[in-house]
């Protein structure tokens, strides 16, 4: 890998029992890249994120994150922010928005020390970055799905990461909210120089915001700009006949029609 790659995967294979979930995946993600990782359900997207986080060890291949294998990251682990899939049942817990975001500081302050006013200031700034500061004293359960998801991003930001991994962050949020959400990610990336990987199966919305798309269906089909991906017929290869349905009314028709 070169020093400008935050993540580098080389010929990565993952099997669950005898069944392959990832086959020969090679992928370099550069510093400051905003990447959408797309693919149908069960195509290995979460597995790939778990490989990057060091939670799944590949059966074959090489992975480096910030230049080290993810399970040997040490202090640099805290440079990775992770926003998992939305889980409503967890979020009915009676906890204030500010406390949720402060949890993002634990990696830095240690679990058994109390957060200081500096931690609180960073937590509030993180809420401000996602336009949620005025909700700091509310209970998480009182917020809408989209607002809760913003709080989860604030929590990840509070850890002051350089790499942000988000797994289906806008699931359950309406289209308008989704557009806003990806716009916000783009802004955060530009402001903080973050590298962002966002897992989604919503190609249409994500492709107007990210710089690169990686199309996964066990194997990686292409890693290129959204325009190149949409014109290369890659979506067909990855999704098969589902592509019409997915494209319906949301990917600019001009692009889709020109190449059918
Ligand atoms: P995606 O995130 O794209 O939906 P996943 O990475 O979650 O895909 O899953 C890829 C495949 O691996 C699926 O067929 C899934 O059933 C399987 N799988 C995922 N996690 C496990 C596991 N812990 N044990 C066995 N099979 C798994």
Cofactors and ligands: adenosine-5'-diphosphate
CATH class of the largest domain: Alpha Beta
Number of H- or I-type helical stretches: 11
- The overall pLDDT, averaged over residues, is 84
Major sheet strand order:
5-6-7-3-8-9
Helical content (DSSP H or I, runs of 4+): 25-40%
Helix-strand string: EEEHEEHHHHEHEHEEHHHH
Question: Do you know the CATH topology of the largest domain?
Answer: Rossmann fold
Determine the CATH superfamily of the largest domain.
Answer: P-loop containing nucleotide triphosphate hydrolases
Radius of gyration: 19 Å
Largest sheet: 6 strands, mixed
Provide an overview of this structure.
By secondary structure, the protein is an alpha/beta fold. It has two domains: 1-66 and 162-230, 3-Layer(aba) Sandwich (Rossmann fold), CATH 3.40.50.300; 89-159, no CATH class. The chain is 36% helix and 24% strand. The chain contains eleven helices and nine strands. The protein has helices at 45-53, 97-103, 106-109, 117-129, 145-158, 175-192, 203-207, 226-231, 234-239, 242-247, 253-258, and strands at 5-16, 19-30, 34-38, 60-65, 80-83, 163-167, 195-200, 212-217, 219-224. The strands form two sheets. Strands 5-6-7-3-8-9 form a six-stranded mixed sheet, sandwiched between helices. A three-stranded antiparallel sheet has the order 2-1-4, covered by helices on one side. Strand 6, helix 6 and strand 7 (195-200) form a beta-alpha-beta unit. Helix 2 packs parallel to helix 5 and helix 4 packs across helix 5. The longest helix is centred in the last third of the chain and has 18 residues, at 175-192. The radius of gyration is 19 Å and the shape is globular. The two termini are 37 Å apart. The model is unreliable at 241-260 (pLDDT under 50). Adenosine-5'-diphosphate binds at residues 16, 21, 39, 41-47.
């Amino acid at each position: 890998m070169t020093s400008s790659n935050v993540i580098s995967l080389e010929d990565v294979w993952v099997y669950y029992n005898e069944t392959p979930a990832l086959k020969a995946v090679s992928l370099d993600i550069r510093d400051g890249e905003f990447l959408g990782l797309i693919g149908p359900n069960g195509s290995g997207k979460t597995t790939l994120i778990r490989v990057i986080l060091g939670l799944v060890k590949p059966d074959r291949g090489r992975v480096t994150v910030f230049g080290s294998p993810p399970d040997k990251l040490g202090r640099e682990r805290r440079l990775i922010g992770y926003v998992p899939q939305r889980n409503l049942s967890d979020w009915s817990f009676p906890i204030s928005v500010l406390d949720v975001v402060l949890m993002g500081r634990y990696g830095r302050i240690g679990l058994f020390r109390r957060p200081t006013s500096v931690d609180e200031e960073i937590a509030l700034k993180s809420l401000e970055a996602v336009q949620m500061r005025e909700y700091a004293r509310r209970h998480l359960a009182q917020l809408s799905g989209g607002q809760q998801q913003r709080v989860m991003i604030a929590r990840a930001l509070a850890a002051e990461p350089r790499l942000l991994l988000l797994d289906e962050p806008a699931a359950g949020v309406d289209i308008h909210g989704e557009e806003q959400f990806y716009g916000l990610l783009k802004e955060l990336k530009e402001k903080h120089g973050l590298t962002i990987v966002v897992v989604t199966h919503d190609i249409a919305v994500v492709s107007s915001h990210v710089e690169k798309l990686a199309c996964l269906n066990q194997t990686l089909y292409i890693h290129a700009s959204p325009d190149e991906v949409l014109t290369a017929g890659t979506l067909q290869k990855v999704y098969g006949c589902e592509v019409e349905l997915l494209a319906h009314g949301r990917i600019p028709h001009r692009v889709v029609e020109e190449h059918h």
